[in-house]
């Protein structure tokens, strides 16, 4: 075994492996924010809102009040909320006094984090500064992930009594791997989204995740016009719920 390691052929191969190096640029952008960061945030926001079931608001006039929403990509969140409401048959009211229900979104945290790691040999400096050996990175990994925590509260526009709400949280990930400088090899939710969107199949983000946050129908007095034509997507009534009772919604952590 010792002979084989000292064999000239093995020594040359080992030297070539150690001396083999690569170079990669981890960030290149011509805009203020990289496309990866923007896609990560929008992906996390989409996942978070896809957990919310707005079907109980079908046929109602809803005023979306963004006064208490403060965070990154505010316009995207508000526009996505409007899209979800319209998709579920909601009429958007221009002002609060013309609405049946007021919906207030809030941000519990929308942002990105980055971690970097590598497998290899760290740099070594011999005593006295006689010789310094550089670090050798065999495998490097850069992980970026975005988190979106969005809260929603809905209340009756006239009586100011709560109708429902909840909190939804989701994450999106993007991993870049380099092996001996070759790469990147990517994994994560962005790649899955792009693969699905650019493939032959139709991409339907609403089918990705179950809806864990739902709004109750409130009292019959406040939703009397709503009982005549209920869509099939409406959640079943809660057993033994009082007239003024509040339907609690799930708190989703992912």
Descriptive notes:
The structure is a single chain. This protein is an alpha/beta fold and 254 residues long. Helices cover 22% and strands 33% of the residues. It contains five helices and eleven strands, in the order H-H-H-E-E-H-E-E-E-E-E-E-E-H-E-E. Strands 2, 3, 4, 7, 8, 9 and 11 form a seven-stranded mixed beta sheet that branches. Strands 1-10 form a two-stranded parallel ribbon. Helix 3 packs parallel to helix 4. The chain is elongated, with a radius of gyration of 27 Å.
Structural class: alpha/beta
Low-confidence stretches: 1-21, 217-254
Q: Taking Cα atoms only, what radius of gyration do you get, to the nearest Å?
A: 27 Å
Secondary structure tally, helices: 5
Average residue pLDDT: 76
Summarize the structure in short.
By secondary structure, the protein is an alpha/beta fold. The protein is built from five helices and eleven strands, in the order αααββαβββββββαββ. Helix content is 22%, strand content 33%.
Write the layout of secondary structure elements.
Elements: H1 2-6, H2 8-19, H3 35-50, E1 52-53, E2 61-64, H4 74-87, E3 91-92, E4 101-121, E5 124-125, E6 132-133, E7 136-156, E8 162-179, E9 182-188, H5 189-198, E10 213-214, E11 251-252
Parallel strand pairs: 1-10, 2-3, 2-4, 8-11
Antiparallel strand pairs: 4-7, 5-6, 7-8, 8-9
Helix pairs in contact: 3-4
State the main characteristics:
single chain; 254 residues; alpha/beta; 7-stranded mixed sheet; two-stranded parallel sheet; 5 helices; elongated; disordered C terminus
């Amino acid at each position: 075994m010792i002979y084989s390691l000292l064999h000239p052929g093995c020594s040359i191969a080992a030297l070539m492996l150690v001396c083999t190096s690569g170079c990669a640029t981890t960030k290149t952008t011509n805009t203020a924010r990289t496309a990866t960061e923007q896609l990560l945030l929008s992906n996390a926001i989409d996942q978070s809102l896809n957990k919310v079931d707005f079907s109980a608001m079908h046929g109602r006039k809803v005023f979306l009040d963004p006064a208490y929403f403060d965070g990154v990509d505010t316009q995207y969140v508000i526009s996505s909320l409007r899209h979800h409401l319209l998709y579920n048959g909601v009429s958007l009211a221009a002002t609060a006094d013309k609405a049946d229900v007021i919906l207030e979104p809030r941000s519990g945290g929308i942002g990105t984090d980055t971690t970097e790691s590598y497998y290899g040999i760290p740099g070594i400096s011999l005593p006295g500064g006689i010789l310094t050996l550089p670090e050798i990175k065999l495998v490097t990994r850069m992980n970026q992930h975005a988190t979106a925590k969005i809260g929603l509260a809905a209340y009756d526009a006239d009586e100011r009594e709560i109708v429902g709400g909840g909190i939804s949280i989701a994450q999106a990930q993007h991993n870049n791997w380099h092996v001996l400088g070759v790469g990147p090899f990517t994994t994560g939710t962005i790649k899955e989204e792009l693969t699905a969107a650019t493939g032959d199949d139709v991409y339907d983000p609403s089918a990705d995740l179950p809806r864990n946050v739902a709004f109750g129908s409130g009292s019959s007095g406040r939703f009397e016009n709503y009982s005549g034509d209920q869509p099939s997507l409406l959640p079943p009534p809660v057993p033994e719920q009082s007239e003024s009772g509040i339907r609690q919604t799930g708190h989703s952590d992912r």
